[in-house]
Amino acid sequence: MKIKSSFRLFSAVLLLTASTFCVKAQDDKYADTYACQKGMVHFFSATAMENIDATTNSAVCVLNTKTKKVFCKLKQTSFTFKDKLMQEHFNENYMESDKFPVAQLDMVIVEDIDFTKDGVYDVTLKGTIEMHGVKKEREIKGKITVKNGQPVNATAVFMVKLADHGIKIPSIVGANIAEDVKTDVDFTFEKFHK
C-alpha cells in the first residue's frame, strides 16, 4: 500500500516537473520573439498621367532577435486607395488577389546587432519577397530602433519591379503605371506572448 502511494506521489511530482519544463520550453521558444500586428506598408507609383498611392495598416511582422529572422505577411486586399476604381483594378486586374491573396517577406538580418544596446541600427535584410505567387531573392536596407533593451521599430524603403513578380500591365494603361514601385514600411514591435 505504501509502495503504491509512494509511486503515485512520485508520478505526480514527475508529471508536475515535466509540465513545468514544457511550459518553460514554450516560453523559451518565444523568448527572443517580437511581433507587430498592425504594420504600415505604403507604395507609390508616379507617372506623367497619374499617381498611384496605397497604404495598409494591417501587415503582420515577426522578428526573432536570436536567429535574426524576419517574417512579414499581408493581405493584398487590405491596401486602400483614394480612388476606389483604382483599388478595384489593383485587386482584380494586376494583383489577382483572389488567386494570390497574400504577399510575404521571409528574410534574415545580415549584420550582428546587439539587441540589448539602445540605438538606431542600419541593417541589411536578405531573403525572399513573394508577391503575385512569385518569389524573388532580394536584399533590402532598413533601420531598426532598439529602446530599453528591445527592438521597438523597423523601417525600410525599397523598389519593387512589377515584372519580377509576373505582374503584367496592359499596354493600353502602360503609361499610367510605373514599372518600378517605391515601397516603404514601418513596423512597431512588442514582445510576443503566446
Summarize the structure in words.
The chain is elongated. It has an eight-stranded antiparallel barrel. The longest helix has 28 residues, at 2-29. β1 and β2 form a beta hairpin. By secondary structure, it is α+β, with helices and mostly antiparallel strands. The protein has helices at 2-29, 84-94; strands at residues 33-45, 52-64, 69-75, 80-81, 102-109, 119-131, 134-147, 150-161, 180-188, 190-191.
Topology:
Elements: H1 2-29, E1 33-45, E2 52-64, E3 69-75, E4 80-81, H2 84-94, E5 102-109, E6 119-131, E7 134-147, E8 150-161, E9 180-188, E10 190-191
Antiparallel strand pairs: 1-2, 1-9, 1-10, 2-3, 2-4, 3-5, 5-6, 6-7, 7-8, 8-9
Question: Could you list some keywords that capture this structure?
Answer:
2 helices, 194 residues, 10 strands, alpha+beta, eight-stranded antiparallel barrel
